[in-house]
Write a structure and sequence with these properties.
Helix content is 24%, strand content 30%. It is elongated and about 65 Å long. The chain folds into 2 domains: 186 residues, FAD/NAD(P)-binding domain, CATH 3.50.50.60; 122 residues, FAD/NAD(P)-binding domain (3-Layer(bba) Sandwich), CATH 3.50.50.60. The strands form 6 sheets. Strands 1, 2, 5, 6, 7, 8 and 21 form a 7-stranded mixed sheet that branches. The protein is an alpha/beta fold and 317 residues long. Bound molecules: flavin-adenine dinucleotide (FAD). Flavin-adenine dinucleotide binds next to helix 1, strand 9 and helix 7.
Length: 317
């Protein structure tokens, strides 16, 4: 028979949103269980320096997440290495099935499953991730002051990232497969007027090239989609800006979503369309997608779960 665990608050996800929810829910004596998923620590474990986490002018992403996990654990969060495979939200307590076979029942659930940047899938892109290849201009643009940068993509994300990166870079080359942008007209106008940005139309990235020791990008090779001709562009940074996908697999058929699958929450709240189910972090955030905003939403979710449980008269089930 399947092992069943009941908790007042089940937190799904171990990024900044999940661990912060754990800290707050533990301090509210809710004895939360947090299920970590396939990527313990979340997206920040895939990067190197983080320079915008308050309190640390620089910290390695994996170290920050180890600290957050230890903090949540120290406050009393039970952290479990497991993967939630489905949730029944039709009645309370909610029931979550897991990969290990354990069934978790919970009076409230905090969804903090995050998002993933879309990547091109090139071997060289993978090799230089965190060493010149990034998917987040807000996070990493600052590292490229006075340098040449390449941005890949042609939609709103790419144009916004290219414009933002002109605050730091000496030159931004925007590589796009088509001969026109798919972004909003106003963004396109801004991009075309910006003297630091040079579009390279009808090209796709074929390889990121760089040094081995220390590992770092020195340029890219892009292929003309019609002629196959290769152009080499020197640069120190490559920003892949072809979009993000929220990790909404557990809830996309049950909760309201928008903007390409992000879970809708009520204004100024983490409440979803199902009472007792809260969503925090990149799963709900198509706009900021930052560790600190995710942590803030994790805090909100725990406080709102606490209030919800108090209104329900405490524990159910
Ligand atoms: C390369 C890179 C560099 C970045 N640099 C910065 C930076 O410098 N500063 C900054 O502020 N932000 C940065 N970001 C963005 C930041 O990492 C995210 O905004 C933040 O991690 C989002 O936190 P989150 O808690 O919402 O989710 P995530 O960090 O995405 O974590 C999601 C968690 O959910 C878990 N999960 C998913 N599905 C399941 C499931 N079914 N069951 C159980 N668990 C599940 C995963 O295992 C993971 O632990 C960067 C992102 C990337 C990719």
């Amino acid at each position: 028979m399947a092992d069943t665990r009941h908790t007042k608050v089940l937190i799904i996800g171990s990024g900044p949103a999940g661990y912060t929810a754990g800290v707050y829910a533990s301090r509210a004596m809710l004895e939360p269980i947090l299920v970590q998923g396939m990527e313990p620590g979340g997206q920040l474990t895939t990067t190197t320096e983080v320079e915008n986490w308050p309190g640390h002018s620089e910290i390695q992403g994996p170290d920050l997440m180890v600290n957050m996990e230890a903090h949540a654990r120290a406050m009393g969060t039970e952290i479990i290495s497991d993967l939630i495979t489905s949730i029944d939200m039709s009645k309370r307590p909610f029931t979550a099935q897991s990969d290990s076979g354990t069934v978790y029942t919970a009076d409230a659930v905090i969804l903090a499953t995050g998002a993933r940047a879309k990547w091109l899938g090139l071997e060289s892109e993978e090799k230089f991730k965190g060493f010149g290849v990034s998917a987040c201009a807000t996070c990493d643009g600052f590292f490229y002051r006075g340098q040449e940068i390449v941005v890949i993509g042609g939609g709103n994300t790419a144009v916004e990232e290219a414009l933002f990166l002109t605050n730091f870079a000496s030159k931004v080359t925007l590589i796009h497969r088509r001969d026109e942008l798919r972004s909003e007209k106003i963004l396109e106008d801004r991009l075309m007027k910006n003297e630091k940005i040079e579009p390279l139309w009808l090209h796709e990235l074929v390889e990121v090239v760089g040094d081995e020791n220390p590992l770092g990008v020195t340029g890219v090779r892009a292929k003309h989609v019609k002629t196959g001709e290769i152009t080499e562009i020197p640069c120190k940074g490559v920003f892949v800006a072809i979009g993000h996908a929220p990790a909404n697999e557990l809830v996309k058929d049950t909760l309201e979503t928008h903007m390409g699958g992000y879970v809708v929450t009520k204004p100024d709240s983490t409440e979803t369309s199902v009472p007792g189910i809260f969503a925090a972090g990149d799963l709900t955030d198509h706009k900021y997608r930052q560790a600190v905003t995710s942590a803030g939403m994790g805090c909100m979710a725990a406080l709102e779960a606490e209030r919800f449980l108090a209104e329900q008269g405490g524990e159910e089930g």
